[in-house]
Design brief:
mainly alpha; Serine Threonine Protein Phosphatase 5, Tetratricopeptide repeat; two-stranded antiparallel sheet; 10 strands; globular
């Protein structure tokens, strides 16, 4: 008993001494744990509380632009051959030159934010069943829990691809008291779980989500629908730990049955409506709205409107709704010369003008100031940020067909996105063998999904990191010198050192 008392004091002291940020890993908070009412823990008093928290979950992607979008593009685009960091600094340049360390502040922000979002999802998952309000039906409980599990799966899918082994937290911790601390402590400072187990949890969450989540609503692509679960399952089964090409094809086909397809005009995905549609964008010809939302191609997106706008747009270039707003400093995610060369290798690719734009600016870090390249897929404060779209999943079906040896079938899918882009079909030689069709496929995904946070993960999934990234520094004159070569240890990033310092059960990833 004396030993237990001493241990309790030591652990409580540790909890009090650390500077901790997010639940449930690090901080005890009623945000995660609810409040005590007559000695009974109450998290959601009634249906209104549940609906309010559900809306919070639906808004996480929209309100979490830094870790869901901005930092994801830094990792997937600037850490690949698609982009330079854009605005050189201690937080961005390491992604560009391959010198990322555990001290990187972006990684710490992303880890904490993702774990905080998982805590918010777990809060609903763990507590909704005990809400006694008769207005909240059993069917609604199943639906809202399924939505939260789809969200949790989405977060863990990003985390496991970035860091590999991460803590698996599926419950909320109880109150810390002298009697419970030894049981509760592991919930606040859990060890890492192996990547395979993380993927299996993602799979389980999505399969349950597929049962009880709402069907796709063609008029509202901000929901955690069955279609979002299907798209995530297709992406999960394309990854090595659970790779199953038949299931990739199955869920891609089910999305088509849900009504998803390619929009006819690629600019519908990222375009804007200007005051004068016949004049070029300028201070006098402002964007007044997004060109389209809820297209048949979008699976999940965050939407922005006048009065509740997308702030991330001014991080990448000129916001077309306000031509000069914050356009006085170098922007993030500058398209690379190597990407531009890939776009211009075939004449007439319509996606080029929707992905890259050139402006006159006040800096010349990577390009001459009078003809500077900018990322163009988030061009106004009214543009949606698209987390998932059908072209991604359709092309993953092509990847699955390649894996099954059906090279002509894969070529037919690749030709669909090429034709929309204004290009001719692949030559017959492109599907003559595995190497040729894989090269064509990787190029097509690169151009179709450029600046959407996919490129790095494509290279990792197909084990092309060393081949592509160790060669790009010599052929791209605008890229700063490579600090470290890419190896198999580069496929996952370092766990933030601050987090390791706070949680004695965490270990650093090899190579860092």
């Amino acid at each position: 008993m004396k030993t237990r008392h001493i241990l309790s004091i030591l652990i409580l002291s540790l909890l009090a001494a650390c500077s901790l940020d997010y639940d449930p890993l690090d901080t005890y908070s009623d945000v995660t744990e609810g409040v005590s009412q007559d000695s009974v823990q109450v998290v959601f008093e009634d249906k209104a509380d549940v609906l309010a928290h559900r809306q919070t979950l639906l808004n996480l992607y929209k309100n979490g632009q830094e870790h869901w979008y901005l930092d994801m593009l830094l990792l997937a685009e600037s850490h690949s051959d698609n982009a330079y960091s854009g605005s050189p600094s201690a937080e961005t340049t390491p992604f560009e030159v391959n010198s990322i360390e555990g001290s990187n502040t972006n990684l710490r922000r992303d880890w904490n934010s993702h774990m905080g979002n998982i805590a918010q999802a777990n809060r609903l998952i763990s507590n909704i069943d005990v809400v006694s309000d008769p207005a909240l039906t059993d069917a609604e409980k199943l639906q809202y829990k399924a939505e939260a599990k789809i969200l949790r799966a989405m977060i863990y899918f990003d985390m496991v691809r970035i860091w590999g082994n991460v803590p698996l937290v599926t419950t909320v911790a109880g109150d810390i008291t002298s009697e419970t601390i030894e049981d509760v402590y592991p919930a606040y400072f859990p060890p890492q779980t192996d990547a395979l187990t993380i993927y299996q949890q993602i799979e389980a969450d999505l399969l349950e989500g597929l049962q009880y989540a709402p069907a796709n609503d063609p008029q509202d692509k901000t929901q955690f629908s069955k279609s979002v679960a299907r798209a995530l399952l297709a992406k999960v089964y394309a990854e090595k730990p659970l790779r199953d090409y038949d299931k990739v094809i199955q869920y891609a086909d089910e999305l088509a049955a849900d009504g998803f397809g390619l929009v006819d005009d690629f600019s519908d995905l990222f375009g804007v409506i200007l005051t004068d549609p016949n004049a070029p964008p300028s201070q006098d010809n402002k964007a007044i709205d997004a060109k389209a939302r809820n297209t048949k191609e979008t699976i999940f997106e965050a939407q922005y409107f006048p009065g509740n706008t997308n702030w991330a747009t001014w991080m990448y270039g000129r916001p077309l709704n306000d031509w000069t707003f914050y356009f006085t400093w170098a922007k993030w995610i500058t398209p690379s010369r190597d990407l531009i060369k890939a776009f211009t290798s075939e004449v007439g690719d319509k996606r080029y003008a929707e992905t890259v734009v050139f402006y006159n600016c006040g800096w010349n870090i990577y390009y001459p100031a009078d003809n500077y390249a900018f990322m163009y897929k988030c061009r106004s404060a009214y543009n949606s940020t698209i987390k998932m779209r059908y072209a991604d999943i359709l092309l993953l079906k092509a990847e699955a067909l390649i894996g099954k040896g059906d090279y002509s079938g894969a070529a037919q899918i690749i030709n669909q996105t090429r034709q929309r882009a204004g290009l001719s079909n692949l030559p017959a030689s492109a599907s003559a063998g595995e190497d040729a069709i894989t090269e064509a496929y990787l190029k097509e995904r690169r151009l179709e999904l450029a600046m959407e946070g996919q490129r790095w993960f494509d290279l990792v999934r197909l084990e092309k990191v060393e081949e592509v990234m160790n060669a790009v520094y010599d052929k791209d004159e605008g890229r700063p010198a490579q600090v470290y070569p890419f190896t198999s240890l580069s496929y996952i990033l370092p766990v933030p050192q601050d987090i390791i310092d706070q949680n004695p059960n965490l270990v650093q990833n090899p190579g860092y």
